[in-house]
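Example 9 (inverse folding). The structure is encoded as follows.
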């Protein structure tokens, strides 16, 4: 019995991608899961309690990765899933075959994020312009529910010259 080998290694930290939060505690500008997509709330309204019960919360939210508008109505006492959203800034090193070469503040590099498409707004165009002009910028990466996306750029002011 003592010679059996048990393997308890796991692939992740065990942290959940979402957590429950009462609907009435959600706020405009916060995050929520609608139709299994992580979204940012842009509009919220609460209806009064009806003859049979609960006040309802009507939410309008934008998918944080696709920008698609989603709506949901939920009783204010019920729980909704809220995604664990992580935001991190990376320094842009370069771009190869539409994949960005990024470096974080500890010096770790990664080359697995795709540059936003040209039709997806200004972020992809700003990145392409800065690579062409060889300017130093920081890109903001949002991560939630196993997805990652570049959502913003800003000029790097802390450049060691």
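The amino acid assigned to each position is listed next.
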């Amino acid at each position: 019995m003592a010679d059996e080998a048990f393997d308890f290694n796991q692939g992740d930290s065990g942290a959940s991608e979402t957590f429950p939060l009462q609907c009435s505690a959600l706020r405009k500008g916060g995050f929520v899961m609608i139709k299994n997509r992580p979204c940012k709330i842009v509009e919220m309204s609460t209806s009064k309690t009806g003859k049979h019960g609960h006040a309802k919360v009507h939410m309008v939210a934008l998918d944080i990765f696709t920008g698609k508008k989603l709506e949901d109505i939920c009783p204010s006492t019920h729980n909704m899933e809220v995604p664990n959203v992580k935001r991190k800034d990376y320094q842009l090193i370069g771009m190869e075959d539409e994949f960005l070469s990024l470096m974080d503040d500890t010096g770790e590099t990664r080359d697995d994020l795709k540059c936003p498409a040209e039709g997806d707004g200004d972020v992809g165009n700003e990145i392409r312009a800065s690579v062409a002009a060889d300017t130093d910028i920081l890109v903001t990466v949002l991560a939630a529910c196993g997805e990652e996306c570049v959502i913003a750029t800003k000029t790097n002011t802390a450049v060691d010259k």
